[in-house]
């Protein structure tokens, strides 16, 4: 008698099962993206979709998966700390336009954040969804932390962030040019501020200046949102 | 080198978590760690090879690290299904408007700065 059920249990209840499953599906998602180069197929989003499907098919509760993939989740904190390095490097690169950059960041960054929340409120969405939507223009690791801190849902925030990034790239520099925004620094800043890392990848294709400003805008937007949004929410509520 | 960089990042994160409890309960621990590392880089004026290597290694795999917590979205599938249209509308419209606005504002400010610089140079003539 071959003990198929026993072997399956040994695999699916192994403490490395979640890690193995995630790594495997991520390879698949990466291969898919490399092959098609479609913006829609962001490896992280595809991987989350595949993973949800597999967990649902195998009837594995999310809590059990989360426990067996903790090795990855634990590294997210140090990876977030590491975002200080690109922030520092990008800030040094763009001294001449520092003032326009900082002003745009504060004004347009607040508009991007408040606009999303206002629209959602106007459509009658519940308050936990409003708080989850607030950090949608920020890079995912920061958005997840901020969402959780202010009372939203981290997992959802990450998904909103990726979808926002994809829409930003779909419109991209073409949309900005059509609106008369032609300066590479302005295009880069707009892409990085609203569409974080996904927008920055697109901006880099436009050239060095566009990409540099996008990376800077993404870092600054991330850090300023991380600091200001929880403070504002704490004062308000 | 790689290990030394990652060690530093983990220590900054732990320090951030301690400070969160002691001083700043409204900021997430890793964000405080990020600010501390940034201050450290400003003080040094450069990124040491070890920190650079550790940071690039972790940031290269950032999308992968984000997968397990994001998969938690399946717990909210039903609630999301009800609001799907509204959410799609909010995400698209707010993105279009803020993309345009930030580009527009930055372009105006750059033009203004160039005009002022130009005027200043002329005054010196």
Textual characterization of the structure:
The complex is a heterodimer of chains A (237) and B (125). Chain A has 237 residues and is mostly helical. Helices cover 81% and strands 0% of the residues of chain A. The model of chain A has no long low-confidence stretch (mean pLDDT 88). Chain B is 85% helix and 0% strand. Chain B folds into 2 domains: 1-60, no CATH class; 73-125. The longest helix of chain B has 48 residues, at 77-124. Chain B has 5 helices and no strands. The model of chain B has no long low-confidence stretch (mean pLDDT 88). Classes of the chains: A mainly alpha (237), B mainly alpha (125). At the A-B interface, helix 2, helix 3, helix 4, helix 5 and helix 6 of A face helix 1, helix 2, helix 3, helix 4 and helix 5 of B.
Compact description:
The complex is a heterodimer of chains A (237) and B (125). Chain A has 237 residues and is mostly helical. Helix content of chain A is 81%, strand content 0%.
Record keyword descriptors for this entry.
heterodimer; A: 237 residues; mainly alpha; 2 domains; B: 125 residues; 5 helices
